[in-house]
Q: What sequence folds into this?
């Protein structure tokens, strides 16, 4: 595989990994980029062989069941907060800054 | 080892106590599971308490449900309040759900005893059990081989006669394929037949909870006990409760045999087993009807586009904020999420999330997901046409018997292609069951081969009835792995 | 620029508003947790709205009904089989890593808001979606997350970019709010967070395509919306006048500094990877359900005002006051109906009732006053049984307790005196005590009678009927002077 090819594959992998919030080690990137490319190429057969979809009607399925607007007991905090990674005064805690590594 | 039905009757009659059965079960597990690696976590304490309660209730004359006292193993992606259901993932190590899955509630209502959770491929992604972050379960017929997946521990435990019944999940074959490779019976109901409330989602439009047992009769028992509308799952089917199919003879049964299912990639020995099974059906009075299902060819690609897209979506909630094993990472929110998911998820899961994210990403969604959805609808239409001519469609469950641990692991694409026979029924939402059809000899080991039966949408009961009638004419399901000391 | 060059066509604003409105349901959109403002953090959550593994959404039928109602009230076209979609992005207040919304097939398309000046502003769509939780950044070293609000049902109403000024945008918001409140769809209280608004604004020259649009966020009141638009339009105009381009970006309104600031842009922020939600089949609306909702639609505020003015003779101002809330409008209509005196009812409700409520420190809803009681009171005044001043006293009691007006009049001895010995006595006394006024009156100053009437009213503690007093005094003073 040419370098241009593998560069493009790596860039694509990094873009998708960032979208999916998956931090990958370099070794993982090296393995996954060509794997992803190979699998997608194999699946491209699908795109070649099937016509473009018509505005899809909903597939065979029942109409959505809805429920009445009647309250049911919520969970008590002790049923889930103790299992959480970080909490304080009833809140979940997370790191403060929004940005960071892609 | 008796069937679930027989056990339930024995407990109900008082021939043996639920507690005694449980203790025997726990002892068998303790003896065999170190090698086998089927059980991820035992619920001995709660199971014992429950067994005692059931025995006392029976003594007081309370009615006994259809699964009274039957020990059951749950796949680790089924929520059972207070018990660890880690989905085979490091990210959910120690995770205890605050609620119980509907199907588990109904199991308990039917009198069953949950003995624990079973090992599985991580987040149900895999066909061998090797994608578990904890333990790669072994095939009881040959411990150097895989039991199949993703319901690997469930299948191995039932095959090894550790428990009579397990509850797994099937998205693209994850109950049927391990059932076939382990020589037991495994069933994927019609989509919507069993509630998914409490089943950790992988491919929401494909997932179904599915039972594994040593006989089709036991599968029917479970289906009756667990099926029915659930107001907590908007995709469950309504309608009257399922009862056993009324079909009483194989005579006149129209059996469709798709050309595509017996194609070039099929192991020759598996083909021979399947052909013998078909001959058995004909001898019983069934009529074999050759079928063409051209949509089968693109089914794998279609499945993987749809399933990975839905998986990427369903696993987005694992971000380290509210539960799971958080990894702090570089100090920002995004870094924490990236590190938590990067460290906590295994290679196969990451691969599928990346694929799924890609197929949904801007500019690609129509080319990929849109087309896959269209092809899926076409496949369903193809099946509907076929079922105008036939009552059931049969073929091999897998193209080959169990492969060796490590053999396929390096080539994910090869692994995906092996699912070709099971994904069509998943895509079309049809009921499908795998039953033991015979064996192939591999060196010193007999390796099981499964016969898959597919029925029309909603035709679960009649499908199982037909499969049961076939099973009653053969002895394959009675065969027990040689390592098992308790037949 | 050369003074001879023809002036470029004027810059025209194009403003579009995206309003998020919390529906007036008891429970969340996809789970039966209650939703209310001000509960302790993470006490209104369940596996579904926590995004716990294995949990599944089930739509709230009341939320669907209210969205349908909003669509009918705004004249939109209903999609009889709308779908939910998943909109993916990662944030700490988004438990599933996606928001369940409606992208491809919203429940309503089109519709319009008619402004007070008659202009129609078209809507593009109205769709159902769930709210996110709350991330609190301004306390401590970490961000705190409260998921009580996660899953609360919202409708998002998107207008076409047809608003042309900040004032018009404000009028649109006020009118939209009134329509939704009167339709019973939402409380629409920006302070409690049940109404939120984002703005898209651009400038273009008349006849040319729309300019680059800027999104404005963090607008917490209608005032903010107007002020931010004024600032932003000026900012964009200035950029364009300098020959620079307006950047497409999201800007945050800073009310303290009175300016908009660019938010740090997030890479890949826009790739939401929409997926039709496989857990939620189509939302089917039957013809029966639509017709039932159409029939149950409360009369809009504007229509009520028009009717009151045309049929009941109310003035525009009073009509406006009485249609401030659906409760008040309903109260007025019921009082008017029961008393048969719409103008008097309007008068009381616009003036005396608010005063009495303020004095008692109560809202109309919290008070004991009912339309029936008010109608009774009005009846007593019209029958001349009760003077206006005394009636106000009775009103003060009616807002606090359950005694009927008649009982109060009796107990407090407030019955109007319209004749008899008592009245005579008061009049004679007033005449005797106010010789100057008497003399003035007899000298031809008709106004002096007023002072005498006032004296009698005072002496009677307001109980004398002014008309009867006037008649009695006139009679007394017309009698020939004693020699």
A:
């Amino acid at each position: 595989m040419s370098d241009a090819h593998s560069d493009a594959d790596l860039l694509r992998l990094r873009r998708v990994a960032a979208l999916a919030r998956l931090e990958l080690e370099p070794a993982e990137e090296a393995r996954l980029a060509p794997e992803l490319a190979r699998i997608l190429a194999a699946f491209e057969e699908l795109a070649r062989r099937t016509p473009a979809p018509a505005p899809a009607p909903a597939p065979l399925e029942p109409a959505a069941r809805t429920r009445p607007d009647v309250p049911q007991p919520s969970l008590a905090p002790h049923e889930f907060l103790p299992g959480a990674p970080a909490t304080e005064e009833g809140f979940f805690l997370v790191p403060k800054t929004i940005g960071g590594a892609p | 080892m008796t069937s679930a039905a027989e056990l339930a009757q024995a407990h109900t009659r008082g021939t043996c106590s639920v507690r005694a059965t449980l203790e025997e079960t726990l002892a068998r597990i303790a003896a065999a599971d170190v090698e086998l690696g089927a059980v991820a976590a035992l619920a001995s304490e709660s199971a014992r308490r429950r067994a005692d309660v059931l025995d006392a209730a029976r003594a007081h004359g309370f009615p006994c449900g259809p699964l009274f006292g039957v020990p059951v193993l749950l796949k680790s992606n089924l929520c059972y309040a207070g018990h660890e259901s880690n989905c085979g993932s490091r990210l959910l190590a120690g995770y205890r759900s605050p609620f119980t899955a509907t199907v588990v509630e109904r199991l308990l209502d039917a009198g069953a005893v949950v003995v624990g959770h079973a090992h599985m491929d991580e987040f149900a992604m895999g066909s061998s059990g090797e994608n578990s972050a904890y333990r790669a379960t072994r095939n009881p017929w040959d411990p150097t081989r895989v039991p199949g997946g993703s319901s690997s521990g469930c299948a191995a435990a039932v095959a090894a006669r550790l428990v009579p019944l397990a509850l797994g999940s099937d998205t693209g074959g994850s109950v049927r394929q391990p059932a076939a490779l382990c020589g037991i019976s495994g069933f994927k109901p019609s989509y919507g037949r069993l509630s998914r409330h409490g089943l950790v989602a992988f491919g929401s439009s494909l997932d179904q909870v599915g039972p594994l047992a040593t006989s089709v009769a036991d599968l029917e028992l479970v289906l009756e006990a667990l099926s029915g509308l659930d107001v907590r799952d908007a995709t469950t089917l309504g309608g009257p409760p399922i009862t056993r199919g009324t079909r009483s003879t194989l005579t006149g049964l129209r059996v469709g045999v798709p050309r595509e299912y017996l194609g070039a990639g099929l192991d020759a020995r598996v083909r021979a087993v399947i052909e013998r099974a078909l001959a058995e059906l004909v001898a019983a009075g069934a009529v074999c009807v050759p079928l063409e299902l051209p949509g089968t060819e693109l089914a794998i690609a279609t499945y993987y586009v749809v399933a990975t897209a839905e998986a990427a979506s369903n696993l987005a909630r694992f971000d380290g904020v509210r539960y799971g094993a958080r990894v702090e990472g570089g100090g920002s929110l995004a870094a924490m999420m990236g590190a938590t998911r990067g460290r906590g998820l295994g290679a196969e899961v990451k691969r599928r999330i990346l694929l799924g994210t890609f197929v949904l990403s801007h500019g690609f969604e129509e080319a990929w997901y849109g087309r896959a959805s269209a092809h899926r609808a076409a496949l369903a239409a193809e099946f509907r046409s076929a079922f105008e001519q036939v009552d059931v469609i049969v073929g091999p469950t897998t193209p080959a018997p169990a492969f060796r641990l490590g053999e396929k692991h390096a080539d994910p694409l090869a692994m995906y292609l092996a699912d070709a026979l099971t994904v069509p029924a998943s895509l079309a939402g049809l009921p499908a069951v795998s039953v033991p059809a015979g064996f192939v000899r591999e060196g010193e080991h007999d390796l099981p081969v499964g016969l898959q039966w597919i029925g029309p949408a909603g035709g679960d009961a009649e499908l199982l009835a037909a499969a049961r009638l076939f099973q009653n004419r053969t002895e394959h399901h009675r065969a027990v792995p040689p390592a098992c000391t308790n037949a | 620029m050369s003074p001879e060059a023809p002036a470029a066509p004027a810059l025209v604003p194009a403003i579009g508003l995206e309003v998020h409105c919390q529906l007036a349901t008891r429970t969340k959109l996809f789970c039966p947790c209650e939703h209310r403002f001000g509960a302790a953090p993470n006490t209104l959550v369940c596996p579904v709205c926590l995004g716990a593994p294995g949990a599944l959404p089930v739509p709230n039928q009341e939320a669907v009904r209210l969205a349908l109602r909003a669509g009918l009230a705004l004249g939109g076209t209903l999609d009889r089989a709308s779908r939910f979609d998943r909109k993916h992005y990662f944030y700490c207040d988004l438990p599933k890593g996606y928001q369940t919304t409606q992208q491809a097939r919203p429940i309503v398309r089109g519709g319009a808001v008619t402004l007070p000046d008659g202009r129609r502003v078209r809507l593009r769509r109205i769709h159902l979606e769930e709210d996110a939780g709350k991330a609190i950044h301004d306390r401590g070293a970490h961000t705190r997350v409260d998921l009580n609000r996660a899953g609360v049902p919202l409708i998002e109403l998107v207008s076409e970019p047809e608003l042309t000024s900040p004032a018009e945008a404000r009028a649109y918001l006020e009118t939209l709010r009134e329509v939704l409140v009167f339709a019973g769809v939402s409380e629409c209280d920006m302070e409690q967070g049940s109404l939120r608004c984002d703005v898209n604004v651009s400038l273009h020259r008349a006849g040319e395509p729309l300019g680059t649009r800027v999104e404005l966020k963090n607008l917490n009141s209608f005032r903010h919306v107007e002020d931010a638009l004024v600032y932003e339009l000026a900012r964009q105009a200035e950029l364009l006048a300098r020959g620079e381009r307006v950047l497409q970006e999201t800007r945050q309104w800073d009310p303290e500094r009175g300016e908009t600031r660019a938010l740090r842009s997030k890479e890949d922020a826009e790739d939401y990877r929409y997926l039709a939600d496989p857990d939620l089949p189509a939302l089917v609306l039957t013809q029966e359900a639509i017709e039932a909702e159409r029939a149950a639609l409360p009369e809009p505020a504007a229509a009520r005002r028009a009717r009151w003015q045309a049929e009941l003779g109310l003035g525009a101002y009073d009509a406006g006051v009485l249609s401030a809330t659906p409760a008040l409008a309903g109260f007025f209509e019921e009082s008017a109906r029961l008393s048969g005196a719409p103008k008097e009812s309007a008068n009381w409700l616009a003036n005396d009732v608010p005063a009495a409520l303020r004095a008692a420190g109560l809202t109309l809803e919290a008070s004991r006053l009912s339309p029936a009681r008010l109608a009774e009171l009005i009846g007593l005044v019209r029958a001349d049984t009760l003077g206006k001043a005394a009636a106000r006293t009775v009103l003060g009691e009616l807002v606090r307790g359950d005694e009927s007006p008649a009982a109060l009049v009796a107990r407090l001895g407030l019955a109007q005196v319209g004749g008899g010995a008592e009245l005579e006595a008061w009049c004679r006394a007033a005449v005797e005590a106010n010789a100057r006024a008497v003399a003035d009156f007899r000298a031809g100053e008709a106004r002096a009678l007023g002072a005498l009437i006032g004296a009698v009213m005072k002496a009677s503690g307001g109980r004398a009927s002014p008309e009867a007093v006037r008649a009695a005094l006139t009679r007394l003073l017309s009698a020939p002077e004693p020699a």
About this structure: Residues 222-241 of chain C form the longest helix (20 residues).
